[in-house]
Design a protein that fits this description.
Layout (H helix, E strand, L loop, with lengths): L4 H14 L6 H11 L7 H12 L6 H11 L63 H6 L7 H13 L7 E9 L4 E2 L1 H8 L11 E7 L3 E6 L5 H17 L3 E6 L3 E3 L9 H11 L9 H16 L5 E5 L8 H14 L2 E6 L12 H6 L5 E4 L3 H12 L23
Parallel strand pairs: 4-5, 4-7, 7-8, 8-9
Antiparallel strand pairs: 1-3, 2-3, 5-6
Helix pairs in contact: 2-3, 6-8, 10-11
Length: 405
Amino acid sequence: MAGYLLHHIIRFGRTLRAAGVPITPGQIVAFIRALEWIPLEDRELFYHAARCTLVCRREDLETFDRVFEWFWRNPLMGGQLPPGLLSTAPGPIRRQENRPRPAEVGHPPAPEPRSENPEAPPVILADRAMTYSPIEILRRKPFERFSEEEIQRVRRLMARLRWQISERETRRLRPGPRGEHLDLRRTLRRSMRHYGEWVRLLWRTHKRKPRPLVVLCDISGSMERYARMLLHFLHALSHTRRHVETFVFGTRLTRITRCLHHRDLDEALREVSRTVVDWSGGTRIGECLHVFNRDWGRRVLGRGAVVMIISDGWDRGDVELLGREMERLQKSCYRLIWLNPLLGIPGYQPLTRGMQAALPYIDDFLPVHNLASLEQLAAHLERLPSRRSARRSGLARPVPSGEPE
């Protein structure tokens, strides 16, 4: 719901209750759900949706009409009823005919009731100047264009994201309502209550556990304008999930998992800056992946791990080595996801040598250039299949930012 309209609706319900109209929280929820099925620019439908969901007694109709007209003249004044509002002689309230008005992007115009006096000015239900919200703009704005104040806002929004990766099935079994394995021991024990008759079969199903997540982030010179926001993202991700291993690479590979364990973001970033020595340098993705597969692969890629590589694909190393290490990494993990901040640029094509060598072994090719792309990534991780499917052959299909998969 656009802007502060939801807040105004709740205040409107409290005002009706103060006027003597019995309003329950369920009626407020019903009114809000009804607005999802009507265009907000239709003033007549808005009025009737409120009347049908918030009024249950005939004797409350006149009170509702007067409070409705008074409240939506200026929603910010709602709360205390002016003296004499309900004692005025009752009279019919006519609705203003719908007149087309250019709608603002992201903030549809609210309904406008009108009194019976045709010369009276139209009543504005919501002050659009007070319903502005910068969240939608921040969701679509690229990371490299953020100001310092916007960075602080996005940090708080990142902390609210919840990362729920699809769980994996383990080999261990547990009692379940229905499963693939018959629990013969519990079935026989339960049958003793019925003189040995198998009245009900009991089953066992596989236990489910969360998948580990491994992130390798490029911090070379070409990724410098994205590095700060990506570190904020990695810090929020590390404190949302338990099993997260984080590495950064440029000309060498560095593990920063322990650095990001600090609850305070600034302290975590200072620890990362002291640990990493190849900031904004060259890029040797193949050599860094070789070190990761040799030294860390068996430690962190067990139990169906999901691997995310964050890089623009610019590489100055051996391209053939990059292809071999990508193939080895894909075979060792459950899912290999490549996040490219340049993928959010209209018309971008992965034509660099590094991307061309890596694409045949990427399962998912996604953008990571704004907050909306992070929300898209969270939804994608939640929809991953619980079982390993057949590996896709050929190039990964890029998913444009802001479009459903």
